[in-house]
Amino acid sequence: MKELFERNYNAVVNRGLITPETKDIEFYEKAVEEIDEIFSAKGKDHVNEEIADLLTVCANWLRHRRVSLEDILTKIAIKNELRAIKWNTKALQ
């Protein structure tokens, strides 16, 4: 999976859409654009492609910020697992 995200990032860089000067606001605006496209997409396959486009924008944003996608996703998974344990514990009380 890591290789796919890296390939995508490099392809976008090679198109000149991401440069060292690209700012967070530009990634934010692209993410908003992709969200709009999700809701205007026709058909299940098109919707799925637009969701994947949003995912890659977010992955590219993190990569551009020099954040390891694997590390941050692991951190978030652990946080959600702990929340689930806490939620399940409360539900049993």
Class based on secondary structure composition and strand pairing: mainly alpha
Helix content, binned percent: over 70%
Number of helices: 4
Oligomer: single chain
Can you describe what's shown?
With 93 residues, this protein is mainly alpha-helical. Helices cover 81% and strands 0% of the residues. It has helices spanning 2-14, 24-40, 44-64, 69-92. Helix 1 (2-14) packs across helix 3 (44-64) and helix 2 (24-40) runs antiparallel to helix 3.
In brief, what are we looking at here?
With 93 residues, the chain is mainly alpha-helical. It is built from 4 helices and no strands.
List keywords for this structure.
globular, 93 residues, mainly alpha, single chain
How is the secondary structure organized here?
Blueprint: H1 2-14, H2 24-40, H3 44-64, H4 69-92
